[in-house]
Amino acid sequence: MSDTTPMRAAGRGMIPRAAPRQRVPQAEGQPVIRSRDFTLLYGTKVGVQNITMDIYPQSVTAIIGPSGCGKSTFLRSINRMNDLIPHVSTSGRLQVNGVDVYDKRTNLVNLRQQVGMVFQHPNPFPKSIYDNVAYGPRLQGTRSRSRLDEVVERCLRGAALWDEVNDNLKKSALALSGGQQQRLCIARALATEPKVLLMDEPCSALDPIATGRIEDLIGQLKAIYTIVIVTHNMQQAARVSDRTAFFCLGELLEYDRTGTVFTRPANKRTEGYITGRFG
Amino acid sequence: MNVSLRRFGDTCFTVTAVGSVLLLTAALVIILGPMIVRGATAIVFQGTIEFRQMQLTRHGRGDPAAVARQVASTNEARRPLYQALDEFKRGIDTACLEDEARQVYTELGKQLRNRNLPAEQLLTIRRHARHLRDTLVDAFEATDKAEARRRLLEVLAESDDPGLAGTVGERLFAMARDYQAGLDTLDLGQRQEYATALKEVQEALRKLLGPRPGEPTPPLAMNRYGATRMDLVERWEDDLLYGEKWVQKEPGKPLVKVRINRETEQFQGTRLASLFRYWRENRDAIMEPAFTVYWQYLIDDSVPGHFFGGVGPEILGTLVITVLAIAFAFPLGLVSAAYLVEVAGDNVAVRFIRMCINTLAGVPSIAFGLFGLAFFVGTVMDGVRCVLAASLTLGVLALPVVIRASEEAIRSVPSPYKEAALALGASRLRCFVTVQLPAALPGILTGVILSMSRAAGETAPILFTGAVAVGPALWEHPVWDWAGQQTRALSYGAFDLASNDRIAAMVPHQQFGMVMTLVVLVLLLNGLAIILRWRISRKLRGR
User: What ipTM was predicted for this assembly?
Assistant: First the structure.
């Protein structure tokens, strides 16, 4: 699957359009992620309760809310990262592209390759930049050096990191700055060609300039991927997202277009949170 | 707390910490220093001509021309010693002299018969000779000097007898003259003591100088050469220069052993006294000491008893056993640790297993040795003691440490790495092998190398299962057979030298050398571990 579109070089580099996958923006009626009465319990404690929402393709959906309200819990449920925590039980339905995530027959490896994740604290592997980005493709069985080179370059460009690191891809990933490491993690997540990108407070550990660059990146990526971003920074949610969901105490209180939620919230508690009266 | 008090507390803490480190370093130096220094004398020492000769004959090392030259010059220097010995010996060894006298008489008889003399003359001469012989024998046997001198004069009065002229009978007169000369210097009553002391001196000289030139080669290798090192010379010349005597110090009390100087007390006035002075003045010419670096100590085989030679087979044995032990313990330990961290739940069974592993880490090594004897030797190897059984025993010894260290290391890999790998679609196994294991490698390696150091130095586990004190070196067997053979080892060898080996007690530098080699080997292994771990840590930290 070699890319033939010429790169637009200068500055941060644009994301090339990959030919075989049609990037036609779909009509809004086909949600990528569907949640119906999804509930998750940590033992007896409620994580999230009765979450019913649809997430639409080629858009950015932001999840906001006060601390401990279940935003990260819901996000991590989508790619079943909550399996790592003992004594977790779920009920309800959570579908990604029509496939029930919590079905026993679901292939976890496939699911996680389709749904990529970027964590709050940048966590590149203690390997080289090249090996970090190539980790996903190598898992999928890609061995040929030229294919891997191509994928690494494409993803590093896609994460707006190529110009800064292409002089030495063998350098250790841990030698990069915080912002660069987070972009590397994004590049790494892009390497498996996911359909959905989950981002759990990706900028909370970064300085404002790095935050700005990542937000610009998200704006570019949404043309191709479906992005769900959890953030406690309301201004960021307002800047970046198309739709916003407000969680509080494990429940979904409001979910609408960003403009509506921030100017004319339907729920009183939403208004209270947005104006800063609590949370 | 006010500032000055806090500052005082800080200073106390710093002082205590620095002091502890210094104390620890001092303890280490005090304990290890002498051992290493004395052990180093096995490799670096003053070697004598005997040593060079031995190296040339046994290993073909050294310049044959130079050695031959040195041998010639030392033999030259030693000749006066042997001469003095022989002279003195003839003076007091009367049995020998008597035998010689009788032999002369027999020879004389033969000679006379060949001359075809008339029977009458023959009888006269023979009777005369017999009379001389008997008188001479009496003279030898006499314990009173005056009587001996009288008889000798009697013999010598007949020295111009024409009948014996030109025959071997003249030998009798030479012997009489000889004995007369020696008589002045001897105290005949002490003949027995002289004989005993002479034997001691001869033995001491043999130990120092080796066999006399012209003597047949002794069967035992350790007797073929003299003292090979100057420190041995200094120890053994004590036997040469000093003797012991039982003396009644106080009347009524038991006798006390006292050291006496041979030159001034024991052989005073005799012809042998000059030997000791000669030895003291010409020792260097006799032994030809030279600075020697015997690095082949580390690769040479040794003579049984370790009188000469090196610790090559022991080093090889220790290395082979240790490497095999780790080859057994490392994979098994790693997999067990991975199981305990990743797969095992937190139930009673797993807790029990963990407790057992921790207890095993502290079990005395002799228990492992006996277990190895019963199980690995008895059941697995069907009664055959060999390297394989010893390695398995040591492997079981090393296993708990490897498991514990690996478990800690794997547990301490930050969970974000694991989460990131899983989020990318890695299965649990791939995540472990490609992310967690490389990140845990420094800690795992620490555990492995620590247990390897311990295994290299253990004696009890290999005592019953595969180690021997004497036997062929491993390199005498084909490589694929090594696991089935018994072998020598450094740890067991050191124990054996110290406790059982009487021969080795004569050469203590061998013992120190073996222990030093073991200590240096363990230090090297630990150093290697530190370097390896440092490099991997550096890579993991991003530099």
Answer: 0.85
